[in-house]
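I am still getting used to backbone structure tokens and would like to learn alongside you. Label the sequence line and the structure token line clearly, so we can match residues to local backbone shapes. Would you write everything just below, so we can both look at the same thing?
***
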Amino acid sequence: MKLHDLELSGNCYKVRLFAALTNIPIEVVPVDFLGGEHKRAPLITLNPWGQLPVLEDGEVVLRDSQAILVYLAGKYGKTDWWPTEPTDQARVAQWLSTAANEIQNGPGAARLVDKFGIALDKAEAVRRAEHILALIEGHLAHHDWLALDRPTIADCAVMPYVALAPEGGVALAPYPRIRAWIGRIKALPGFRPMPGV
């Protein structure tokens, strides 16, 4: 199983983090992102979106980090991380959607502007970041983990771009519960960092 990967990508890190926490063997294949390798064959054939990560598992090829998390948890029977009960599954899924929407377009987008010089509306990204971080902070006032009473793929999906928010000029100092939650994730057996986390 191969993960086509960019070390500085929070989306790629979600997959590497989950694999590390659950001892799922993945061959990480670095991609020359700045050289545009993800926009040329064979990668553009695997993922016409031209984005990373891309997971290859035999005949199965998947794009999108949230989808890859679901696939890996399901394939390896990690029901503690991706439950089979519909209500619990929905609770996890709503956070996967948050990772792909509010987090990606808030702290993720602010980081793209500051760290990579991508032409996005920085003020709007910071506004979105502060809004979603306040919501997460409020949620964590009553919960140790995002979706259930234990870590799930929801925590793996949301944490990277939240933890990397300072690289986009979004301070985490006003959010002590978020910082404590990040600390709980870092304390999990098998945790592996990435640059900035």
User: Anything to note?
Assistant: The chain has seven helices and four strands.
